[in-house]
Amino acid sequence: MQNLGWGEILIIAMVFAMLFGAKKLPDTARAVGRSLRIFKAETSKLHDDDPPVPAQAPTPAQTPTPAPAPASALLLEEQARQLEEQAARLRASIRREPGGSAGPA
Fold first, then answer.
1. Could you give the count of Cα atoms lying within 13 Å of 46 in the half-sphere of its Cβ?
2. Rounded CA gap, 38 and 85, in Å?
3. What's the rounded Cα separation, in Å, for the pair 59 and 63?
4. pTM value?
5. How far, CA to CA in Å, does 75 sit from each of 40, 66, 69, 80, 85?
6. Of 16, 23, 31, 105, which has fewest CB within 10 angstroms of its CB?
7. How do residues 2-38 score in pLDDT, each as one tens digit?
8. How confident is the model at residue 65 (pLDDT cuts 50, 70, 90)?
9. In this structure, are residues 20 and 28 in contact, taking their beta carbons and an 8 Å threshold?
10. Is 11 in contact with 18 (CB distance < 8 Å)?
């Protein structure tokens, strides 16, 4: 595809003006600009979230062996149980406090 010349850009601008009207063009351009800015920011965040690429591939002896799935599942269940117990203790202590609110403000 070749680059657009001034004539083609002028024709495209006239078509946009006829489709959207002269009053809506600034608002439309502003909305497109915001959308592109948000899209650019989000795509750059995707690249930031990627894990760093190792310099060389690890050999099989260097590769850590993953923990067995049942052990990690038990660990997560234990953590969840402990968090539920903490939440229950906090709720009980809030109910026992004099002058404490019974609900959200």
1. 6
2. 41
3. 6
4. 0.33
5. 39, 14, 10, 9, 15
6. 105
7. 787 889 988 988 888 888 787 887 888 888 899 999 9
8. low
9. yes
10. no
CA angle 43, 35, 6 (to 5 degrees): 105
What pLDDT is stored for residue 63 in this prediction? 55
Q: How far is CA 11 from CA 5, 15, 22, 58, in A?
A: 10, 6, 15, 57
Q: In this structure, what token pair is assigned to residue 62?
A: 């260097």
